[in-house]
Design goal:
By secondary structure, this protein is an alpha+beta fold. Helices cover 32% and strands 22% of the residues.
Length: 187
């Protein structure tokens, strides 16, 4: 049986990484092509990542809340078919089909990203904890790692849609925070 590496796909030109928010499949689960395996979140959108092949989930390479770079292997899927029906061809057949699927995934994800961005501008940000402001899992993870309290997080100005705090806003704030209070630009 051959193995297939399910990688984090490109989700737009400016997106270089995402936070793993949940696993929809467990090790040993059967997976069909185009079936969602895990969910991710970026500073722009939350989405499900589908499998490109039929098989069984062999290994999870990341845990929930881990930050994954585009192109990194997130899961290993065992592709069935070698032993079961050798007369239909070798295990390389799914690999031949995979490039067509791989080429379509970024386009599908970009469509989903665009649709969700449009939808998010028309809905109220009800997913925040104590405040009314929405924070993506990536921004929350960055705040947790830097020891930034909710009140401090609420005070950081955001440059995203509707004043939303982006990953870049957090990076600038954290850099300024490390340099000292004199160089930070928040009130």
């Amino acid at each position: 049986m051959s193995k297939f590496e399910l990688k984090l796909p490109q989700m737009g030109e400016s997106v270089a990484e995402a936070t793993l928010t949940s696993w929809l499949k467990q090790v040993g689960d059967s997976i069909e092509a185009d079936e969602a395996v895990f969910e991710i979140a970026t500073d722009k959108v939350d989405s499900e990542v589908p499998s490109e092949v039929d098989g069984i989930l062999l290994e999870k390479c990341f845990e929930i809340d881990d930050v994954i770079k585009v192109g990194q292997t997130v899961a290993i899927i065992e592709i069935a078919g070698d032993d079961a029906e050798p007369s239909e061809g070798s295990a390389t057949e799914p690999a031949v089909e995979a490039p067509a699927i791989v080429k379509a995934v970024p386009e599908v994800i970009q469509t989903v990203v665009s649709a969700k961005e449009t939808a998010s501008t028309t809905t109220a940000p009800a997913q925040a904890s104590d405040s009314e402001r929405f924070y993506s899992p990536l921004v929350r993870n960055m705040a947790r790692e830097e020891g930034i309290a909710q009140q401090e997080l609420d005070a950081i100005p955001g440059t995203g849609v509707g004043g939303r705090l982006t990953k870049d806003d957090m990076r600038r704030y954290i850099e300024g925070r490390k340099q000292g209070p004199a160089s930070t630009e928040h009130s």
